[in-house]
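Batch job 17 of 40 flagged for manual review because the log was empty.
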Amino acid sequence: MKPLLKYCGNQSFEDIVVTANSQAQYLGFVFAPSKRCVDPLEVQEWLLEQSVTQKLVGVFVNSTLQEMERVLNYVPLDVIQCHGDEPPDFVARIKEYFQINVWKVIHHSESGVKKMKSYRHLVDGFVIDSKVEGQRGGTGMPFEWEAIPLYQEEASLQNVLCFIAGGINVNSVRDLLQYKPLGVDLSSGIEVNGMKSEKVKNQFEARLFL
């Protein structure tokens, strides 16, 4: 079974042209302080110019419901991805308020699977990412992939999606595939000089979908 694919951190119209014409099922946009942060008004304009068939994921970090609602006024998100320290009760409020899918990022640690369990019945998916001091994501650093089966087992028990993020690129994807990831999430992994690259994207997909 082929893994699901999400290209995150789209930060320009040119990025969307590259990722919209891909084998990805999801495109991600960061609406939180980050080098890849985008304005929802701009994203709305890009999506009017470029037809997109993928589902849209909005990445938020400890945002309020009002901040999320402002984005949704302009961008028809299919998924809200909580990338901060959002506790289970607040995640439940997000899902109840917006009535759309919610994913929670779990930063890999010894207590990662235990943390996943605290969101059982509250989320529709998890993104397992590297834990790098002072950074929320987009670090290009992998975690110990030997732990992937444990995360995927818990996601399977919850009957939700599970994406692996952090340090995934053309050179590392073959090592990742031995763990049979259910979903793959990358941003810098298909970038050249901070922009999504058509050439690198094609090389990556050729290796991911062997």
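Reviewer: the log was empty due to a logging misconfiguration, but the result itself is present. Strands lie at 4-7, 26-30, 55-60, 79-82, 101-107, 125-129, 161-165, 183-186, 191-192, 195-196. Unflagging and moving on to job 18.
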